[in-house]
Amino acid sequence: MKVSPSILSADFGNLRADIEAMNASEADYLHIDVMDGVFVPNISFGFPVIKAVQKVAQKPLDVHLMIVKPENWISQVRDTGAEIMNVHQEACLHLHRTIQSIKQAGMKAGVTLNPSTPVSTLVDVIEDLDLVLLMSVNPGFGGQKFIPQAIKKVQQLRQLIDETGSKAEIEVDGGVTFETGKPLAEAGADILVAGSYIFNHDDPAEAVRLLKSL
Length: 214
Ligand code: DX5
Ligand code: ZN
What we know:
The chain has helices spanning 15-23, 47-56, 74-79, 95-104, 149-164, 178-187, 196-199, 204-212; strands at residues 2-5, 30-35, 61-66, 84-88, 108-113, 131-135, 169-173, 191-194. It has eight helices and eight strands. Strand 6, helix 5 and strand 7 (169-173) form a beta-alpha-beta unit.
């Protein structure tokens, strides 16, 4: 299993220490949650913070934009050195065009689905995608309770990917722990995002290792 620790639950007063702990862990990515207070009822941080994180991070950045009109920010995301740019399906009027633009900018294109958005909305773009991020909580906050329907959605998405020959990876975000991660792994998830589980753990690198073992 690949693991993408979300710094939303890190100590913002001492981000460097938490990023360095992740550098020294088995984490595969660093998950960066950007919120605009419009698409979701919360505001997190923006590009100056991501650039500062990038200077310390030795893991590739997995940027999750919870913002309206994410297509307006593609070059700014690219300039942070991000490897993956995730946009919400619900935030994109012209999703196909946005996916192409992200790839033209040299990043991996990811599309994120809210818990209420069906996997079937991706049928016409699945072959263009590098990644699908399934939300297992309503986006906006760390530390929420896992929504079990996400397990079925992973199965449905795995089936769609296998049928179409898409190379998209399946990432799951929200309420992920060692316990909720297990059925997600069995259902076919490739990458697990975890914030509070990792950063509230006595030993965050051990929490990463536990998720990696799934
Ligand atoms: C929620 C964010 C998540 C969040 C996950 O809107 O997209 O990445 O940090 O936090 P946990 O793992 O605590 O649910
Ligand atoms: Zn996220």
